[in-house]
Amino acid sequence: MELLEAIQSRRSIHEYKRNLVEAKTMEYLFSEAAWAPNHRMKEPWNIRLYQENGKKSYVESVLRSYRRQGFFEGYDQDKQTRLEQGIEDFLWNIPHHALIYMEKDEDQRKYEEDYAAVCAYIQNFQLLAWQEHVGVLWTTSPYLHDPQFAEDIGLDPKVYKLVSVLQIGYPKRIPVPKRRTPIHKKLHIFDGNEKS
Ligand SMILES: Cc1cc2nc3c(=O)[nH]c(=O)nc-3n(C[C@H](O)[C@H](O)[C@H](O)COP(=O)(O)O)c2cc1C
Question: What are the names of the required cofactors (predicted)?
């Protein structure tokens, strides 16, 4: 697949087939994504990959976070149970969840550099995945900002920033593309010939 074709045709995937992506493919994707640019060669990305029975404690931690944040409040007990069950089933049906996290640098500039590098890593990952017919959803769900969630999964929230959870698997359905804004509305060129 050409680079432009991969960039244009990649879609965020919301529905996955149940089968796992082969371990060798996953290793290849996580490994080659590391060619992302990163300042000072810090390679700030870290990954926790939850799959098969490893999803159990992760899904439980997500549900506890949703409860803490009041997602199920205002509903009767029956409805709450159904909502929780719906989220649990939804998460269980996704073959892989990759939590991407980085150390928080106290220096704001370095923190931003590291965050940018991790995002470059994620984009590399999802483009490479697409080339292998593997779908990804880049998520920034509310539990990533819940310090207790980080504690629950064994990461000190004072030390680590949880950047994203990538949902990963073979696509069951590929959404239609969302149109992009013509770039002339966003690109302003200054070459000395612009009218004042
Ligand atoms: C930083 C970031 C966070 C995102 N978080 C979510 C999310 O939490 N849930 C979701 O459904 N999509 C999320 N997305 C995916 C976007 O919704 C998606 O990229 C956008 O709708 C364009 O669709 P496409 O990727 O198929 O072109 C996120 C994307 C980025 C870059």
Answer: FMN
Query: Residues 6 or more apart from 177 whose CB is under 8 A from it?
Result: 8, 11
CATH of the domain spanning 3-185: 3.40.109.10
User: Tens digit of pLDDT for each residue in 102-115?
Assistant: 999 999 999 999 99
Q: What residue's CA is closest to ligand 1, atom 23?
A: 12
The stretch 62-81 carries a mean pLDDT of 96
Contact between 54 and 46 under an 8 Å Cβ cutoff? The reply is: no
Contact 100, 164 (CB under 8 A): yes
Q: Which helix (H) or strand (E) holds 86?
A: helix 77-92
Q: Count Cβ atoms within 10 A of the Cβ of residue 50 and give its class: 0-12 exposed, 13-18 middle, 19 or more buried.
A: buried
